[in-house]
Amino acid sequence: MPASSPPLSLCFTAFVATCATACIENYQVGQNPLETDTAGGDSDDSGAEPTPGVCGDGVLDEGEACDDGDDDPENGCDLDCHPTAAVEWTRTDRGIVEQGAKALDVAIDPTGRIVVVGSERQADGADRGLVLVLDPGGEVVWRRAHPGPKQDNSMFADVEVDAGGRIFVAGGEVGPGNTTSLIRGFGPAAEELWTFRKAIPEPFGQARALAVGPEGLYSASNEAQFDGLVKLVVRRHDLLSGAATWESPDAEPMKEYAKDIVVSGARLAVAGTTVHLEGQVPHPLVAFFALDGTLLASDIDEQVEGEWYGVAPIGAAGDLMLAGYVRHEGAIGSDAVLRRVDADNQEVWTFYDDDASEMFEGVAARADETLVVTGAGRIGDSDDLYTYTRRFAGDGATIWSSQHLDAGPEMNEHGTGVALGPGVGVTAGVWWEDLSQSNGQRDPLNLWVRRFIDD
């Protein structure tokens, strides 16, 4: 990536820095916490050793969870006869001038259109916040790049769509001597509704996450302060004007980072990480706010190193899904973790994928309590990454697992966002070629969007 490019995101930087070198390429059905092997097979009462099954012959043998009789790993069954996502299409995009683009989040609007946000490189050399709207077939409906002076860079890290199809995006602007937290509103046909800006005292921070609620739009921002702290700020915004109607009070002195925010009943839940003033080790953080901005609770997991990157409400009792990574004591790499907690933030179940160095970054749940997470993993002891997407039932059982290892020779992928609609799901992220350019710089990051059947 060119040296002038801003970091993709805090989560991507942290993941690259903490990945280990061990990895397996496929995941067996039967992992924790409640998974079951769905493989069938003919019974054999003769006492003789059964003939080993052949994956790909269309016969469901003992030890196979599926066997569709072909060699397509993206149609619901992979080359090892494990359940995977049934992918309808994948779209890649190098940006408007084909100099690079990044997808950091994705949403599905009420008509089934797909909204992707991130950034793209412009002809003037600046990276600008990007809003890209696709139809259900993956064709571009419209795209907008955030305007700004040549020397300014910007990006959008999160997107929310309301029931009327209005699009709200959150991110930041960085220019000489200024850093700004940024939120914008768009109509379904790309009409600009409003822009909210908040200057940040020190040159670090952005509006990181959004949630549409019953009384407005809620944002969570990370804002560096003069004293070296990073302040997690939650605001409520008027949906018609974007103006902030309240701002959360200051928390205890520490470095806090929001990664995601949701409305859960009569409160807000913010997932992220915190670093104590005397240390550099991140700890998972969940903070709860009333809908008037009052801080209700701040729960820091002091016993583990790690971060929450995504949060989603699930069920009717106020439960939450938390997705991220942890690093256990003495370990070099990270374990992807997905946890369900109840309304009191008490653990219901936890899934750890401790067979490889991986992370979950985005999580989405639907009314029937099925959920999908996406993130990335490292291939063996190389620097190559692959997109890791997994679908769970509400009780923690895995329905399918997909590791996108076939992006192409010298290719890497990283999943950053996931959204669910009626019968479908969409993931988005970045891809890049593992090749150096003639000037010694690496190939720029580019975005991808993938739609899969989720019935």
Notes on the protein architecture:
This protein is mainly β. Helices cover 2% and strands 52% of the residues. It is built from one helix and 29 strands. The strands form seven sheets. The protein has a five-stranded antiparallel sheet with strand order 1-2-29-28-27, with no helix packed on it. Strands 3-4-5-6 form a four-stranded antiparallel sheet, with no helix packed on it. Strands 7-8-9-10 form a four-stranded antiparallel sheet, with no helix packed on it. It is globular, with a radius of gyration of 22 Å.
Number of strands: 29
Low-confidence stretches are 1-45
Q: How many H/I helices?
A: 1
Mean pLDDT: 84
Tertiary shape: globular
Note the gap between the termini: 38 Å
The oligomeric status of these chains comes to single chain
As a percent range, the share of helical residues equals under 10%
Strand residues, percent: over 45%
Q: Strands of the biggest beta sheet: in what spatial order? A: 1-2-29-28-27
**Rg computed from alpha carbons, rounded to a whole number of angstroms:** 22 Å
Q: Sketch the major β-sheet.
A: 5 strands, antiparallel
| Structure classification | mainly beta
The topology string of helices and strands comes to HEEEEEEEEEEEEEEEEEEEEEEEEEEEEE
